[in-house]
Amino acid sequence: MAKPRKSLLALMLLAVLLLDGCSSFYDGEYSYVTKHEEPGTLVGDTEEPYYEVRTYVGMKNAVQSLISSRAETGTIRVKDYSSSVQDDIARVCLDATRDFPMGAYAVEYISHSVSRILGYDEVNLRISYRLTQEEMSSVRAASTLSDVYSMVENAVENGLSGITIQTSSLSVKEQALQNYLRNLYRSHPEQLTSEPKAVISFYPSEESIGKIVDFNFTYREEHEEALERLSELRPMAEELARALDGLTVPEQALYCCNNVVSCVLDTVRGSTAYDALILGNADSEGCAMAYQLLCNLCGIDCRVVEGRMDGSVHYWNIIGIDGAYYHVDCSACVGASVAEGFIFNDGQMMPKYWWDVDKYPACNGPITIQQIMEMIFTRQVEQASSEEESTEAGN
After folding, report:
1. Which of 102, 223, 290, 336 is the most exposed place for a label (fewest CB within 10 A)?
2. Are residues 237 and 344 in the same domain?
3. Are 370 and 322 in contact (CB under 8 A)?
Protein backbone atom coordinates (compact mmCIF):
# COMPACT_ATOMS: atom_id res chain seq x y z
CA MET A 1 0.00 0.00 0.00
CA ALA A 2 3.01 2.33 0.26
CA LYS A 3 3.48 2.77 -3.50
CA PRO A 4 0.07 4.38 -4.18
CA ARG A 5 0.72 6.91 -1.38
CA LYS A 6 4.10 7.79 -2.86
CA SER A 7 2.56 8.19 -6.29
CA LEU A 8 -0.14 10.45 -4.91
CA LEU A 9 2.42 12.42 -2.94
CA ALA A 10 4.48 12.99 -6.09
CA LEU A 11 1.43 14.28 -7.93
CA MET A 12 0.52 16.57 -5.06
CA LEU A 13 4.06 17.94 -4.81
CA LEU A 14 3.95 18.68 -8.51
CA ALA A 15 0.63 20.44 -8.07
CA VAL A 16 2.11 22.65 -5.33
CA LEU A 17 4.86 23.69 -7.69
CA LEU A 18 2.25 24.41 -10.36
CA LEU A 19 0.42 26.79 -8.07
CA ASP A 20 3.45 28.56 -6.56
CA GLY A 21 4.36 31.82 -8.27
CA CYS A 22 5.24 31.39 -11.93
CA SER A 23 3.54 28.15 -12.82
CA SER A 24 3.65 25.75 -15.75
CA PHE A 25 0.63 23.62 -16.65
CA TYR A 26 1.12 19.95 -17.64
CA ASP A 27 3.38 20.10 -20.69
CA GLY A 28 5.32 23.26 -19.78
CA GLU A 29 4.11 25.42 -22.67
CA TYR A 30 1.86 27.68 -20.58
CA SER A 31 3.09 30.11 -17.97
CA TYR A 32 1.56 32.96 -16.05
CA VAL A 33 2.58 34.94 -12.98
CA THR A 34 0.24 34.91 -10.00
CA LYS A 35 0.97 36.43 -6.62
CA HIS A 36 0.24 33.98 -3.80
CA GLU A 37 0.35 34.95 -0.17
CA GLU A 38 0.88 31.35 0.85
CA PRO A 39 1.22 28.29 -1.39
CA GLY A 40 0.43 25.90 1.44
CA THR A 41 2.90 23.37 2.76
CA LEU A 42 2.54 19.73 1.73
CA VAL A 43 3.64 17.44 4.55
CA GLY A 44 4.48 13.99 3.24
CA ASP A 45 6.42 12.32 6.04
CA THR A 46 3.30 10.85 7.67
CA GLU A 47 1.07 7.87 6.95
CA GLU A 48 -1.21 10.13 4.88
CA PRO A 49 0.15 13.33 3.29
CA TYR A 50 -1.66 16.57 4.16
CA TYR A 51 -1.45 20.30 3.54
CA GLU A 52 -0.64 22.67 6.39
CA VAL A 53 -1.97 26.22 5.94
CA ARG A 54 -2.64 29.35 7.98
CA THR A 55 -4.56 31.59 5.60
CA TYR A 56 -7.58 31.58 3.30
CA VAL A 57 -5.28 31.74 0.29
CA GLY A 58 -3.41 28.74 1.62
CA MET A 59 -6.65 26.74 1.79
CA LYS A 60 -7.58 27.81 -1.74
CA ASN A 61 -4.20 26.80 -3.14
CA ALA A 62 -4.31 23.46 -1.36
CA VAL A 63 -7.71 22.61 -2.87
CA GLN A 64 -6.56 23.70 -6.33
CA SER A 65 -3.44 21.60 -5.93
CA LEU A 66 -5.54 18.53 -5.10
CA ILE A 67 -7.68 19.12 -8.20
CA SER A 68 -4.64 19.60 -10.44
CA SER A 69 -3.25 16.25 -9.28
CA ARG A 70 -6.74 14.69 -9.59
CA ALA A 71 -6.69 13.56 -6.00
CA GLU A 72 -10.02 12.09 -4.93
CA THR A 73 -9.40 12.74 -1.24
CA GLY A 74 -7.23 15.18 0.65
CA THR A 75 -6.51 16.58 4.08
CA ILE A 76 -5.77 20.18 5.10
CA ARG A 77 -4.62 21.12 8.59
CA VAL A 78 -5.46 24.75 9.36
CA LYS A 79 -3.43 26.39 12.13
CA ASP A 80 -3.63 29.82 13.80
CA TYR A 81 -6.69 30.71 11.75
CA SER A 82 -8.66 33.77 12.87
CA SER A 83 -11.87 33.21 10.87
CA SER A 84 -14.37 30.38 10.62
CA VAL A 85 -12.71 27.41 8.92
CA GLN A 86 -16.13 25.82 8.33
CA ASP A 87 -17.46 28.85 6.45
CA ASP A 88 -14.29 29.56 4.52
CA ILE A 89 -13.60 26.02 3.32
CA ALA A 90 -17.18 25.88 2.03
CA ARG A 91 -16.52 29.03 0.00
CA VAL A 92 -13.12 27.72 -1.16
CA CYS A 93 -14.69 24.49 -2.44
CA LEU A 94 -17.47 26.37 -4.24
CA ASP A 95 -14.98 28.77 -5.86
CA ALA A 96 -12.74 25.86 -6.89
CA THR A 97 -15.56 24.34 -8.95
CA ARG A 98 -16.76 27.68 -10.27
CA ASP A 99 -13.70 29.92 -10.79
CA PHE A 100 -10.64 27.63 -10.98
CA PRO A 101 -10.29 26.55 -14.65
CA MET A 102 -9.53 22.87 -14.03
CA GLY A 103 -12.15 22.69 -11.31
CA ALA A 104 -14.83 24.24 -13.50
CA TYR A 105 -13.85 21.89 -16.32
CA ALA A 106 -13.35 18.58 -14.53
CA VAL A 107 -14.89 18.55 -11.05
CA GLU A 108 -18.44 17.36 -10.37
CA TYR A 109 -18.56 18.34 -6.71
CA ILE A 110 -16.44 18.61 -3.54
CA SER A 111 -17.65 17.49 -0.12
CA HIS A 112 -15.85 18.39 3.09
CA SER A 113 -15.88 17.96 6.84
CA VAL A 114 -14.08 19.93 9.56
CA SER A 115 -12.82 18.53 12.88
CA ARG A 116 -11.10 20.35 15.73
CA ILE A 117 -7.96 18.45 16.83
CA LEU A 118 -5.57 19.77 19.54
CA GLY A 119 -4.70 23.23 18.27
CA TYR A 120 -5.69 22.98 14.62
CA ASP A 121 -8.68 22.32 12.39
CA GLU A 122 -8.52 19.31 10.09
CA VAL A 123 -10.40 19.55 6.83
CA ASN A 124 -11.12 16.31 5.01
CA LEU A 125 -12.10 16.61 1.36
CA ARG A 126 -13.66 14.21 -1.10
CA ILE A 127 -13.57 15.28 -4.76
CA SER A 128 -15.74 13.77 -7.48
CA TYR A 129 -14.68 14.25 -11.10
CA ARG A 130 -16.67 14.17 -14.33
CA LEU A 131 -13.48 13.47 -16.30
CA THR A 132 -10.82 10.77 -16.16
CA GLN A 133 -7.15 11.31 -15.39
CA GLU A 134 -6.37 10.75 -19.06
CA GLU A 135 -8.87 13.39 -20.14
CA MET A 136 -7.51 15.91 -17.66
CA SER A 137 -3.92 15.19 -18.64
CA SER A 138 -4.77 15.67 -22.32
CA VAL A 139 -5.40 19.39 -21.74
CA ARG A 140 -2.73 21.25 -23.68
CA ALA A 141 -1.23 24.60 -22.75
CA ALA A 142 -0.93 27.75 -24.85
CA SER A 143 0.36 31.12 -23.75
CA THR A 144 -0.78 33.19 -26.75
CA LEU A 145 -3.66 33.33 -29.22
CA SER A 146 -1.21 32.35 -31.97
CA ASP A 147 -0.34 29.18 -30.03
CA VAL A 148 -4.04 28.34 -29.77
CA TYR A 149 -4.46 28.86 -33.51
CA SER A 150 -1.57 26.50 -34.27
CA MET A 151 -3.04 23.77 -32.07
CA VAL A 152 -6.48 24.16 -33.63
CA GLU A 153 -5.03 24.01 -37.14
CA ASN A 154 -3.12 20.84 -36.35
CA ALA A 155 -6.24 19.28 -34.80
CA VAL A 156 -8.57 19.89 -37.76
CA GLU A 157 -5.94 18.91 -40.33
CA ASN A 158 -5.70 15.56 -38.56
CA GLY A 159 -9.47 15.18 -38.31
CA LEU A 160 -9.57 15.19 -34.50
CA SER A 161 -13.01 15.26 -32.90
CA GLY A 162 -11.84 17.75 -30.32
CA ILE A 163 -9.02 19.43 -28.43
CA THR A 164 -8.83 21.11 -25.02
CA ILE A 165 -6.45 23.99 -24.34
CA GLN A 166 -5.61 25.98 -21.21
CA THR A 167 -4.51 29.56 -21.79
CA SER A 168 -4.07 32.88 -20.01
CA SER A 169 -4.51 34.96 -23.17
CA LEU A 170 -7.27 37.54 -22.95
CA SER A 171 -7.47 37.51 -26.77
CA VAL A 172 -8.88 33.98 -26.86
CA LYS A 173 -12.54 34.68 -27.60
CA GLU A 174 -15.15 32.57 -29.37
CA GLN A 175 -15.64 35.00 -32.24
CA ALA A 176 -11.91 35.14 -32.95
CA LEU A 177 -11.67 31.34 -32.86
CA GLN A 178 -14.68 30.81 -35.14
CA ASN A 179 -13.33 33.40 -37.59
CA TYR A 180 -9.95 31.69 -37.57
CA LEU A 181 -11.49 28.30 -38.37
CA ARG A 182 -13.53 29.78 -41.21
CA ASN A 183 -10.53 31.65 -42.64
CA LEU A 184 -8.29 28.61 -42.27
CA TYR A 185 -10.58 26.60 -44.51
CA ARG A 186 -11.19 29.43 -46.95
CA SER A 187 -7.47 30.20 -47.26
CA HIS A 188 -6.18 26.62 -47.55
CA PRO A 189 -8.41 24.33 -49.63
CA GLU A 190 -5.30 22.24 -50.30
CA GLN A 191 -5.33 21.24 -46.60
CA LEU A 192 -9.06 20.91 -45.81
CA THR A 193 -11.71 19.48 -48.13
CA SER A 194 -14.62 21.03 -46.24
CA GLU A 195 -15.18 23.61 -43.53
CA PRO A 196 -14.91 22.20 -40.00
CA LYS A 197 -17.55 23.33 -37.51
CA ALA A 198 -16.77 23.80 -33.84
CA VAL A 199 -18.73 23.96 -30.60
CA ILE A 200 -16.49 25.91 -28.20
CA SER A 201 -16.91 25.90 -24.42
CA PHE A 202 -14.99 28.01 -21.89
CA TYR A 203 -14.17 27.09 -18.28
CA PRO A 204 -14.87 28.95 -16.12
CA SER A 205 -15.88 31.62 -18.69
CA GLU A 206 -14.83 33.33 -21.90
CA GLU A 207 -13.92 36.48 -19.97
CA SER A 208 -11.65 34.75 -17.44
CA ILE A 209 -7.94 35.54 -17.57
CA GLY A 210 -7.01 31.91 -16.97
CA LYS A 211 -9.38 29.53 -18.76
CA ILE A 212 -9.75 26.15 -20.38
CA VAL A 213 -11.14 26.15 -23.92
CA ASP A 214 -12.81 22.95 -25.10
CA PHE A 215 -13.35 22.41 -28.84
CA ASN A 216 -15.68 19.79 -30.33
CA PHE A 217 -15.29 19.55 -34.11
CA THR A 218 -17.62 18.14 -36.73
CA TYR A 219 -16.77 17.55 -40.39
CA ARG A 220 -18.76 16.95 -43.54
CA GLU A 221 -16.93 13.69 -44.14
CA GLU A 222 -14.86 11.18 -42.20
CA HIS A 223 -11.12 11.86 -42.03
CA GLU A 224 -10.28 8.88 -44.26
CA GLU A 225 -12.68 10.16 -46.92
CA ALA A 226 -11.19 13.65 -46.64
CA LEU A 227 -7.69 12.23 -47.19
CA GLU A 228 -8.93 10.30 -50.24
CA ARG A 229 -10.44 13.47 -51.67
CA LEU A 230 -7.23 15.41 -51.09
CA SER A 231 -5.26 12.62 -52.79
CA GLU A 232 -7.39 13.22 -55.89
CA LEU A 233 -7.62 16.99 -55.67
CA ARG A 234 -4.01 17.95 -55.00
CA PRO A 235 -2.35 16.14 -57.95
CA MET A 236 -4.87 17.53 -60.41
CA ALA A 237 -4.54 21.07 -59.07
CA GLU A 238 -0.74 20.82 -58.99
CA GLU A 239 -0.69 19.66 -62.60
CA LEU A 240 -2.83 22.63 -63.66
CA ALA A 241 -0.55 24.99 -61.74
CA ARG A 242 2.67 23.50 -63.16
CA ALA A 243 1.39 24.16 -66.68
CA LEU A 244 1.45 27.88 -65.84
CA ASP A 245 5.12 28.01 -64.81
CA GLY A 246 6.96 30.81 -66.57
CA LEU A 247 3.90 33.00 -67.15
CA THR A 248 3.42 36.41 -65.58
CA VAL A 249 1.14 36.72 -62.55
CA PRO A 250 -1.69 38.36 -64.54
CA GLU A 251 -1.50 35.55 -67.11
CA GLN A 252 -1.50 32.88 -64.41
CA ALA A 253 -4.51 34.52 -62.74
CA LEU A 254 -6.46 34.45 -66.01
CA TYR A 255 -5.57 30.84 -66.77
CA CYS A 256 -6.53 29.78 -63.22
CA CYS A 257 -9.96 31.33 -63.77
CA ASN A 258 -10.27 29.63 -67.13
CA ASN A 259 -9.28 26.26 -65.60
CA VAL A 260 -12.03 26.51 -62.99
CA VAL A 261 -14.60 27.52 -65.59
CA SER A 262 -13.53 24.62 -67.84
CA CYS A 263 -14.06 22.09 -65.03
CA VAL A 264 -17.43 23.30 -63.74
CA LEU A 265 -20.48 22.18 -65.71
CA ASP A 266 -23.19 22.83 -63.12
CA THR A 267 -23.31 25.79 -60.69
CA VAL A 268 -26.39 24.68 -58.76
CA ARG A 269 -24.69 22.56 -56.07
CA GLY A 270 -21.28 21.76 -54.60
CA SER A 271 -19.45 24.16 -52.28
CA THR A 272 -15.85 22.87 -52.24
CA ALA A 273 -12.81 22.88 -54.48
CA TYR A 274 -13.22 19.12 -54.83
CA ASP A 275 -16.78 19.59 -56.07
CA ALA A 276 -15.59 22.10 -58.67
CA LEU A 277 -12.41 20.51 -60.02
CA ILE A 278 -13.16 16.78 -59.59
CA LEU A 279 -16.94 16.43 -59.71
CA GLY A 280 -17.64 19.38 -62.02
CA ASN A 281 -20.54 20.62 -59.87
CA ALA A 282 -19.99 23.77 -57.82
CA ASP A 283 -21.90 26.84 -56.72
CA SER A 284 -20.21 30.21 -56.25
CA GLU A 285 -18.49 29.05 -53.05
CA GLY A 286 -17.12 25.92 -54.72
CA CYS A 287 -15.83 27.99 -57.67
CA ALA A 288 -14.21 30.50 -55.31
CA MET A 289 -12.56 27.70 -53.30
CA ALA A 290 -11.23 26.07 -56.49
CA TYR A 291 -9.81 29.39 -57.67
CA GLN A 292 -8.25 29.94 -54.23
CA LEU A 293 -6.57 26.55 -54.47
CA LEU A 294 -5.07 27.18 -57.91
CA CYS A 295 -3.90 30.66 -56.93
CA ASN A 296 -2.26 29.27 -53.78
CA LEU A 297 -0.31 26.77 -55.88
CA CYS A 298 0.78 29.52 -58.29
CA GLY A 299 1.80 31.83 -55.45
CA ILE A 300 -0.85 34.44 -56.29
CA ASP A 301 -2.16 36.60 -53.45
CA CYS A 302 -5.80 35.53 -53.19
CA ARG A 303 -8.67 35.45 -50.72
CA VAL A 304 -12.29 34.30 -50.74
CA VAL A 305 -14.95 36.99 -50.37
CA GLU A 306 -18.30 36.27 -48.74
CA GLY A 307 -20.91 38.78 -49.89
CA ARG A 308 -24.13 39.02 -51.83
CA MET A 309 -25.10 39.18 -55.48
CA ASP A 310 -28.57 40.37 -56.42
CA GLY A 311 -29.52 40.01 -52.74
CA SER A 312 -28.43 36.36 -52.35
CA VAL A 313 -25.36 34.98 -50.56
CA HIS A 314 -22.52 34.77 -53.06
CA TYR A 315 -18.79 34.02 -53.03
CA TRP A 316 -15.95 35.21 -55.22
CA ASN A 317 -12.26 36.10 -54.89
CA ILE A 318 -10.00 39.12 -54.58
CA ILE A 319 -6.49 38.79 -56.00
CA GLY A 320 -3.43 40.99 -55.58
CA ILE A 321 -1.09 41.80 -58.47
CA ASP A 322 1.87 44.14 -57.94
CA GLY A 323 0.25 45.72 -54.89
CA ALA A 324 -3.12 46.36 -56.54
CA TYR A 325 -6.30 44.33 -56.04
CA TYR A 326 -9.02 42.98 -58.32
CA HIS A 327 -12.27 41.00 -58.07
CA VAL A 328 -12.63 37.60 -59.76
CA ASP A 329 -15.96 35.76 -59.89
CA CYS A 330 -15.39 32.42 -61.60
CA SER A 331 -19.01 31.34 -61.18
CA ALA A 332 -20.13 34.29 -63.30
CA CYS A 333 -17.93 33.00 -66.11
CA VAL A 334 -19.35 29.46 -66.19
CA GLY A 335 -21.38 28.99 -69.35
CA ALA A 336 -20.17 32.34 -70.63
CA SER A 337 -16.61 33.70 -70.90
CA VAL A 338 -13.95 34.81 -68.42
CA ALA A 339 -14.70 38.40 -69.41
CA GLU A 340 -17.95 38.11 -67.40
CA GLY A 341 -16.23 37.91 -64.02
CA PHE A 342 -12.47 38.34 -64.30
CA ILE A 343 -10.41 41.21 -62.89
CA PHE A 344 -13.11 43.77 -62.07
CA ASN A 345 -12.67 46.86 -59.91
CA ASP A 346 -14.99 48.03 -57.12
CA GLY A 347 -16.94 50.33 -59.40
CA GLN A 348 -17.69 47.55 -61.84
CA MET A 349 -18.88 45.23 -59.04
CA MET A 350 -20.99 47.54 -56.88
CA PRO A 351 -24.15 47.82 -59.01
CA LYS A 352 -24.71 44.07 -58.67
CA TYR A 353 -22.57 42.86 -55.73
CA TRP A 354 -22.39 43.75 -52.05
CA TRP A 355 -19.56 43.00 -49.58
CA ASP A 356 -18.16 44.39 -46.35
CA VAL A 357 -15.70 46.93 -47.71
CA ASP A 358 -14.00 47.21 -44.30
CA LYS A 359 -12.96 43.53 -44.36
CA TYR A 360 -11.37 43.49 -47.81
CA PRO A 361 -8.87 45.68 -49.68
CA ALA A 362 -10.11 48.25 -52.17
CA CYS A 363 -9.95 46.91 -55.72
CA ASN A 364 -8.88 49.68 -58.07
CA GLY A 365 -5.97 48.16 -59.96
CA PRO A 366 -4.97 49.47 -63.43
CA ILE A 367 -4.76 46.13 -65.26
CA THR A 368 -7.60 45.14 -67.61
CA ILE A 369 -8.49 41.78 -69.11
CA GLN A 370 -7.75 43.23 -72.54
CA GLN A 371 -4.17 43.98 -71.50
CA ILE A 372 -3.71 40.45 -70.20
CA MET A 373 -5.12 38.99 -73.41
CA GLU A 374 -2.63 41.10 -75.33
CA MET A 375 0.19 39.73 -73.12
CA ILE A 376 -0.91 36.19 -73.91
CA PHE A 377 -1.29 36.91 -77.64
CA THR A 378 2.15 38.52 -77.78
CA ARG A 379 3.68 35.56 -75.93
CA GLN A 380 2.04 33.09 -78.31
CA VAL A 381 3.26 35.01 -81.37
CA GLU A 382 6.79 35.16 -79.98
CA GLN A 383 6.69 31.46 -79.12
CA ALA A 384 5.44 30.53 -82.61
CA SER A 385 8.12 32.69 -84.19
CA SER A 386 10.80 31.10 -82.04
CA GLU A 387 9.61 27.61 -82.91
CA GLU A 388 9.58 28.51 -86.62
CA GLU A 389 13.12 29.84 -86.44
CA SER A 390 14.24 26.65 -84.66
CA THR A 391 12.63 24.54 -87.36
CA GLU A 392 14.29 26.53 -90.13
CA ALA A 393 17.66 26.31 -88.39
CA GLY A 394 17.24 22.54 -88.09
CA ASN A 395 16.58 22.26 -91.79
Report:
1. 336
2. yes
3. no
